[in-house]
Amino acid sequence: MVSGVNRVSLGVQAFQEEMLKGCGRAHGLKEVDEAIEIIVRSCNVENWSIDLIASLPGQTLEMWEESLRRAIDARPAHVSVYDLQVEKGTKFAKMYTPGEHPLPSEKQSAEFYSMASKALSGAGFNHYEISSYCKTGYQCKHNSTYWDNKSFYGFGLGATSFLNALRFPRPKKLKDYEGYIQSLESGTVTCFGEKNSDLNAGDMAMDVVMLALRTAKGLDLKSFGEAFGSSSVMSLLDVYKPHVETGHVLWLDEQRRNVTIGDAVSFIRLSDPDGFLLSNELISLAFCALG
Fold first, then answer.
1. Interatomic CA distance for residues 54 and 19, integer angstroms
2. Was domain 8-146 assigned CATH 3.90.1150.10?
3. What pLDDT is recorded for position 197?
């Protein structure tokens, strides 16, 4: 495109009017169809993505199946599937309690996730990260930078940067941000603020594990061992051994083939969809093992 934009992401969220109204979206299906028409036919954008949200109030498996089907029929290069998170202190949290009607139960949410994995994989999408699916060659480079633990800059209110293994935020309020910029320009503070003192190997190791286990690539144990020591690798193998037996965690060799307990392990990843569904619990085990 003339302006240099090379990717477009549409926050569709659902393909039912009642779902969109229920989650407070300003757009309807008419606007969704118009946006897709502009992107695909008017601008000829190939690299575009659709975002969907599962576990919305009153959502049924039939509704979710329709949203997945219509997303696939639109033929995007990428689909992101997020589970609704009800954050404390928000308007949504005052209206709904997770796991209670009209929000779907945990079992239903798990069914939504499994349905998405099966439908999108069956349509030729690669499930390359817990919430992300893409056609070959269309992984989101922006997000992959996060998951690969590479450096990036963030600009603006509340933006976070990651440089030299250090993650640091910008102020969220305009007045504070303006003061921060003035101090930065005068040299009284650095872009890192006062966060350098928080940096330690344990935090870095847990960061690497958390991000890597979100992906289908998983954790490269050779690189991890070189950075954090062989004892950290052994701790992870020990804590995940029972979950390899249940099929929630996969051990892979150098050719990324499944191996059993007792064989040489080069990579650890979570299984799809069962392991991904328990990602929070499984990643927490790594934190305990490395802490």
1. 10
2. no
3. 43
